[in-house]
Design brief:
There is one protein chain. The protein has ten helices and twelve strands. The chain has 326 residues and is α/β, with parallel strands linked by helices. The chain has two domains: 58 residues, Ribosomal Protein L15, Chain: K, domain 2, CATH 3.100.10; 230 residues, Up-down Bundle (Four Helix Bundle (Hemerythrin (Met), subunit A)). The strands form four sheets. A four-stranded mixed sheet has the order 1-5-7-8, covered by helices on one side. Strands 4-3-2-6 form a four-stranded mixed sheet. The mean pLDDT is 93.
Amino acid sequence: MARPYYIFSNGRLKRKENTIRIETQNGKKDIPVEEVAAIYVFGEMDLNSKLLNFLSQHEIPLHIYNYYGFYAGSYLPRERNVSGELLVRQVKHYLDKEKRLYLAFTFVEGAIFHILRNLRSYHDTEGFKRKIEQELNKACEVKKLNELMGCEGRARSVYYQAFSNMLKPEEFVMEKRERRPPTNPVNALISFGNSLIYTTVLSEIYKTPLNPTISYLHEPRERRYSLSLDIAEIFKPLMVDAIILKLINNNMLKLSDFDADVNYCYLNENGRRKFITEYEKKLTTTIKHRKLKRKVSYRSLIRIECYKLIKHLLGDDVYKPFKAWW
């Protein structure tokens, strides 16, 4: 079964007959192309057009991360699952203010549902939950996208303030969310995890006819796949934040798993390996789907969300955000 491969060392990535060869200072490794779902590069790797053509033939995305472990860009093979009709519908829903606002709200609704779900697992979070629920109620009544974004931003701000009550080790503290750059371990974890879920969602969108550049909550811009940001909002609290809380509260991560560079805090290679190990476990964990009546993985839930959105855009069904029931 195909799975993602994560490369942390420096070296060369190339095609070797019908395999992908990874050459590092530790030696050479050949991987049958059928076993590769996506490649994540964290080290400095040399590659050439022969490899990129090979990846394109087998529809394998390549995601690149920078020195600090944060997302830099992706190589996506030529789109094969294209649909002119769906593209037109995506654009129409973006241009129609009412339709766009509805979809934008559903992404916020799904995100806040899982935020509240996380808070319910910890003591002394009642005050935070009330404030977030108030923002959700306000979001239900807004008429403009910027007002919705304001509600979502305030809800997340309160949520991150609650992290001080949810994290046990005293050395892991978080006063506020910092993105560029993250200056403490908790912010570094959130940024790293969010970049992983972004590329995971992007890989799943690529397998559908959806255009990843046309979005509804986040404004479409050049040089980013903003629909990935929309859908990732639903899964960040459910997956990324849950992993962060587990790693810290179970003492699986130490301060030694982080490095600092001027005012920049980031996971070192050992820390990234620990996070990605738990991230892959989460993606492959299965649950019994209530509607499909079969077990599906967390990764499959993301793909299912894409197809639910497609049905909505085509007018076959009304989109409702995924909400974990277990």
